[in-house]
From TrEMBL:
Stated name of the protein: Phosphorylase b kinase regulatory subunit
Name of the coding gene: Phka1
Keyword Cell membrane on entry: yes
Organism this protein belongs to: Pomatorhinus ruficollis (streak-breasted scimitar babbler)
Main location: membrane
Pathways per UniProt: Glycan biosynthesis; glycogen metabolism
Length: 1235
């Protein structure tokens, strides 16, 4: 008999350790592991981590086997792993209905359970009796399933199981926007059952998605049907959110040791090496102790001060846990393994020795790793005084199988039994290796031969869509339909992937489907999805953003390829040349550099060899020729009976049918179903609606429909056309308010008499006659009026009988009208029809998540609560839209504009996060109100006109106006006149101001008028000192100029004693900063210190108690949000800003030697004392009553609102005096003296 080698003997020692600490607890039937002898439930996360040592030992035996007995041990260990992984799979498959529901809801009520019965795989607690939603646990299972499959284990046995795993991918791909209870099952660190977005969950999900992408779950024996598919855009969403969160772990946890599993083994989810090191050092510096690392600061779990009888903590008791948090040796095991993967042997040695020092000897000399070390109850006070000096005692599970497993894994690797590549066969450890520069390929296509000829005249050589055949070009929404089929399983009632829009990473690949190659155009140019694509300037901006995104996020083999079609909508108004903005973009693309990206343009056939290509094998026919499933069969009339998704899920190939033609047929059907048919008659100049239309003719006169609807006794008129968008605050524009409000309760019916709505014999409105009027409408506006009336009277699905029976529905006609209005660029009408049709802003939930992931909360609607709704965690699209509609008080125009602004805010926070400095809550309702106010000021027009102009701004101008509001930069407004429906319409656009107050056209295209411009500017400046002048040229009449004066923004910081010569400047600045929630740097930390010296701060009756400091730390984002929530109770933004200034003066007392400054301080009282001092002093100086007029809602002088902060008569001067008076009794004897 051959003697054992040293490695064999050592492995046998590890085998005994694994058997006695882990495998002896494994259930013989299910393969699951209980948490401990006292806790018989099987946690998903603990089970996966606990089995890693068994898997690693099996790999080590397989590698180092020197006799058949060792090979048998390897097989036995590996099958123990398979048994456990299949046991967990059975637990989850029994909850398949939850997986299906969670894909759409992301709700805690629909999530998979976190723990199961060890012996039966059944659930052990109710849905609401535990913090079950733990995305990291499900993600960890999938990640290790991928790694184990890649190592050669066969865990998945059937296609039903493959489909279930595919649906688990859909389950976790929304992790970047799903607030969960996290790895510690407690959620928010206050332990009150509040979910939050956790970096550990997002990172583990990202790792699992990357590991499973295009992995065959049957291993070498698999085929096309057993491959798992992951969309690259979902991975990058997780990456973006994770990068923006770290080193912070969540909103309530500034640092958490669980993030070690994300930045190192097993996830390796972070690609930035510097961020990895920063996060690791943050954990070591703040959390490491003598026995391990605590989980997070102020963690009360198993501490002597924790009350085990209560499930939740009281917020103020978190302070009791400071410096006595339990320390977990588990995290030293992570750090030892991290050292092995990073090649840092000193780190490996340091933490291995540290672990040896905290192990506890059990029976037979087995060394066990305890769960945690706690401060003895009688030594708590000593530990408070001198942290990390008291000897601690082991508590909790012994052994802690999770930690024991990682310790054994680390020792196996440290002793050379396993190489990093063997435990990480998918090479995730190379995540931080620098990637090569990305070159983006752009193929420009012409929609028609005519457009191709126009482009060639401009020197742009392109092909048409038909020229690139056999490569097929399709819109992005078709790819969404194709992917919606993934994972569908009728037996388990799994519907596949929810229909979602495709991101730029997905559309930048070429796809092989059967024998054909497909390329898909970007989502943002799909005009049927949302109206942003109707604006050529906006298209160029979105292309620039996408190119920059591709350069930073592309990780796949091959170059990204964008197929960019030039359509007729990208031509100018004469259709004889390309729109100047689009042409400039094409020329920059050909130059090879655009939007910060390196560009390679060319023909699609030339770019094919270097492109990233993916074979969608799930679209291949099965063994019996079945392509899309077995639920439906293709038959005559199927095109009419099935919608697009039913076709995708149900289409079956006939035996004599060519599969390539069938795919083309299917795609043609999808296009047919998603393209509106022409049913609406063209507008005409005959007659009109004068006999039953109110005598109003502007776009905003849609508001007159409210009175018509009232006459028809239509219920809930406000859902469709309320008289105004918002109830604006004091001195702000009232959006969409009608210049003449009709008294519906009065007896005067003169307006109704003008309508003369057609009625039938019974006196009811004759809807058929209304339909007939569509044929003689002179304008699109009048067609919209009629269709709107039909919409509220008959509903969207009413068949109009137009041309034939049953005829198109009202919704179909509105959809066609939307397309026609889009061609005329009547933006207010476009937005309004979009609201009626509930056009889906595809990127809305992603935009919301982007803002939230940058630690910004959102509010929609105008203050105060409950009208103003706060969004603090990512929510599904449908719930988000419902919340916006509710906050908009069912006003369609406001709702759609709110969604539009949210998308723009997300664009800016991704590219220019500095715009949002010191802003923790973005109040979209107030931002829209301020935009209208600023527009009214710039145009010198009434509130009604400003509202009309705001709603008529193009998306690119709306985005530009938002930028100027956020940045505080000056902007100009250009007026132009254009023909719409054979009538002249005034339009406005936003333009940048130069250093001398001139607009871009003036700086670039008006050379021939240079002398005239100079003369007019000089003359205007002489007559209006201090006013910035904008020269505007009408687009229709050459040589005609109009001069518009505009008060410019100036810096918030002016020199001491400087005099403000521009009336209204500081009031506007305060209104702006108040609406944006801007505060000085370090403001919230100073407020925290103020609360330590008083009992609380009161703002308009709402108290911020001093107990908040015992719950939260000064740098905690949660504290800043809490302070903002109190300040946001004030509806007037300029009044709110003065309250901020008053609090800022209070913070100056913190640095004085004052132990207390009173009980609850009423901040508004300080402000009103300052206002009274200001009033009396100004009156003594001769100011008249008109100048000192007070705001009726707040009692503050308008002149105080408009005073600079500094200077002799500055607000800070009077607030300082007021504070001194208010807290006089608490100041030292030699304190401040009033001047």
């Amino acid at each position: 008999m051959r003697s054992r080698s040293n490695s064999g003997v050592r492995l046998d020692g590890f085998g005994r350790l694994v058997q006695q600490t882990i495998l002896r607890h494994q259930d013989a039937v299910t393969g699951l592991l209980p948490a401990s002898a006292d806790h018989q439930d099987a946690w998903v996360r603990d089970n996966v981590y606990s089995i890693l040592a068994v898997w690693a030992l099996g790999l080590a035996y397989r590698k180092n086997a020197d006799r058949d007995e060792d090979k048998a041990k390897a097989y036995e260990l590996e099958q123990s792993v398979v048994k456990l992984m299949r046991g967990l799979l059975q637990c989850m498959m029994r909850q398949v209905e939850k997986v299906e529901a969670f894909k759409y809801s992301q709700s805690t009520r629909d999530c998979l359970h976190a723990k199961y019965n060890t012996h039966t795989c059944a659930t052990v607690v109710g849905d609401h009796e535990w913090g079950h939603l733990q995305m990291d646990a499900t993600s960890l299972y999938l990640l290790m399933l991928a790694q184990m499959t890649a190592s050669g284990l066969h865990i998945i046995h059937s296609l039903d199981e493959v489909n279930f795993i595919q649906n688990l991918v859909f389950y976790i791909e929304a992790a970047y926007k799903t607030a969960d209870f996290g790895i510690w099952e407690r959620g928010d660190k206050t332990n009150q059952g509040i979910t939050e977005l956790n970096a550990s969950s997002v990172g583990m999900a990202k790792a699992a998605l990357e590991a499973l992408d295009e992995l065959d779950l049957f291993g070498a024996k698999g085929g096309p049907q057993s491959v798992i598919w992951v969309l690259s855009d979902e991975v990058q969403h997780c990456q973006s959110i994770l990068h923006s969160m770290l080193p912070r772990a969540s909103t309530s946890k500034e640092v958490d040791a669980s993030v070690l599993s994300v930045i190192s083994y097993p996830a390796f989810a972070v690609e930035d090496r510097e961020l990895v090191e920063i996060t690791k050092q943050e954990i070591i510096t703040k959390l490491q102790g003598r026995y391990g690392c605590c989980r997070f600061l102020r963690d009360g779990y198993r501490t002597p001060k924790e009350d085990p009888k209560r499930l939740y903590y009281e917020p103020a008791e978190l302070k009791l846990f400071e410096n006595i948090e339990c320390e977990w040796p588990l995290f030293w095991a992570y750090l030892m393994i991290d050292g092995i993967f990073s090649g840092n042997m000193e780190q490996v040695q340091e933490y291995r020795e540290a672990l040896e020092g905290v192990l506890i000897k059990g029976k037979n000399g087995v060394r066990l790793l305890p769960e945690l070390y706690s401060v003895p109850p009688d030594k708590v006070d000593e530990e408070y005084r001198n942290p990390h000096t008291v000897d601690r005692i082991p508590m909790g599970k012994l052994p802690h199988m999770w930690g024991q497993s990682l310790y054994i894994l680390g020792c196996l690797m440290a002793e050379g039994f396993l190489a990093p590549g063997e435990i990480d066969p998918l090479n995730r450890r190379f995540a931080t290796v620098p990637k090569p520069d990305v070159v983006v390929q752009v193929c420009i296509l012409a929609e028609t031969e005519e457009i191709k000829a126009i482009l060639q005249k401009e020197g742009v050589d392109v092909e048409t869509v038909t020229d690139v055949y056999p490569i097929r070009v399709q819109p992005a929404r078709i790819l969404s339909h194709i992917y919606a089929r993934l994972g569908r399983n009728k037996q388990m009632s799994l519907t596949g992937r929810p229909y979602r829009h495709m991101g730029v990473l997905g559309t930048s690949k070429l796809y092989k489907i059967r024998k054909s190659i497909f390329t898909f155009t970007p989502q943002f140019i799909d005009q049927q999805q949302f109206y942003l694509a109707l604006d050529n300037k906006m298209i160029v901006e979105m292309l620039r953003t996408d190119l920059s995104y591709l350069c930073s996020r592309w990780r796949m083999t091959g170059r990204p390829t964008i197929t960019f079609p030039i359509s007729h909508t990208m031509l100018d108004e004469t259709s004889s040349s390309v729109h100047p903005t689009v042409l400039a973009m094409l020329q920059k693309l050909q130059d090879g550099y655009f939007g910060g990206a390196r560009i390679q343009t060319g023909k699609l056939s030339e770019l094919l060899t270097t492109s990233c290509r993916t074979h969608l094998s799930f679209m291949d026919p099965g063994p019996e020729g079945k392509v899309f499933g077995k639920s439906y069969r293709l038959s005559s009339g199927s095109f009419e009976k099935l919608d697009a998704e039913e076709w995708l899920h149900g289409l079956q190939v006939a035996e004599d049918e060519d599969t390539d033609d069938e795919v083309a047929q299917y795609l043609d059907h999808l296009l047919q179903r998603t393209t509106p048919q022409s049913n609406l008659p063209p507008t005409t100049q005959r007659g009109g609606l004068s006999r039953f239309r109110a005598a109003v003719h502007t776009t905003r006169d849609l508001m007159s429909l409210a009175s018509k609807a009232k006459d028809l006794h239509v219920q809930n008129v406000g859902m469709y056309v309320p008289s105004r968008i918002f109830q604006a605050s004091q001195q702000s524009v009232k959006l969409l308010s009608s210049p003449h409000q009709h008294d519906f309760d009065g007896k005067s019916h003169a307006p109704y008499a003008e309508m003369n709505l057609p009625r039938d014999e019974d006196g009811n409105v004759d809807c058929k006659a209304l339909v007939n009027q569509l044929c003689i409408c002179p304008t699109l506006q009048e067609q919209a009026d009629i269709l709107y009336m039909l919409y509220i009277l008959k509903g969207p699905e009413w068949h109009t009988g137009l041309d034939s029976e049953p005829g198109p529905t009202v919704k179909e006609l509105l959809t066609e009208l939307y397309v026609r209005v889009g061609e005329t660029r009547q933006w207010a009408l476009i937005r309004y029809i979009s609201g009626i049709l509930k056009k889906k802003v595809e990127a809305l939930d992603e935009a919301c998540t982007d803002l939230l992931s940058h630690q910004k909360h959102l509010t929609v609607g105008l203050p105060p609560e409950p009208r103003e709704k706060t969004i603090s965690t990512p929510i599904p699209y449908e719930e988000l839209v419902r919340l916006i509609d509710e906050a908009s008080e069912k006003n369609l125009s406001v709702s759609i504009l709110t969604q539009e602004i949210m998308v723009y805010l997300a664009m800016y926070i991704r590219t220019q996060p500095a715009l949002f400095a010191e802003m923790f809550r973005i109040r979209i309702g107030l931002i829209i109100q301020v935009m209208a106010t600023e527009l009214a000021h710039s145009l010198h027009c009434s509130a009604g006109e400003a509202t009309e102009n705001l709603m008529n701004l193009s998306p690119s101008d709306m985005k530009s106006l938002l930028y100027h509001i956020l940045s505080g930069k000056e902007f100009g407004v250009e007026r132009s006149v254009r023909s719409v429906d054979s009538s002249l319409t005034t339009a406005v656009s936003i333009c940048d101001m130069g250093a001398v107050g001139t607009t871009r056209p003036e700086r670039t295209g008006l050379v021939r008028l240079k002398s005239e411009i100079k003369q007019q500017l000089d003359k205007r400046r002489q007559s209006l000192p201090g006013i910035s002048v904008v020269l505007v040229l009408s687009a229709q009449s050459a040589g005609h100029t109009e001069l518009l004066g505009k008060d410019s923004f100036s810096s918030m910081l002016e020199g001491q004693g400087s005099k403000d010569s521009r009336q209204g400047q500081w009031q506007r600045r305060r209104r702006l900063d108040g609406a944006l929630n801007r505060v000085p740097v370090g403001f919230y930390q100073k407020v925290w210190k103020v609360l330590q010296k008083c009992h609380g701060l009161s703002v308009e009756g709402f108290v911020l108690p001093s107990s908040t400091t015992r719950e939260m730390t000064p740098g905690e984002m949660k504290f800043a949000v809490h302070v903002e929530s109190v300040l946001n109770r004030v509806p007037q933004p300029e009044y709110r800003q003065l309250l901020v200034e008053a609090i800022l003066v209070l913070t100056m007392l913190v640095d004085m030697e004052v132990h207390t400054i009173g009980g609850i301080i009423a901040v508004e009282k300080i402000l009103h004392i300052a206002n009274d001092l200001f009033y009396e002093e100004q009156k003594a100086l001769g100011a008249d009553e008109h100048m000192l007029e007070r705001d009726p809602s707040t009692g503050i002088c308008s002149l105080l609102y408009d005073s600079a902060p500094s200077g002799r008569f500055g607000t800070m001067t009077y607030l300082s005096k007021s504070v001194a008076l208010y807290v006089y009794d608490f100041l030292p004897a030699d304190g401040c003296s009033m001047q």
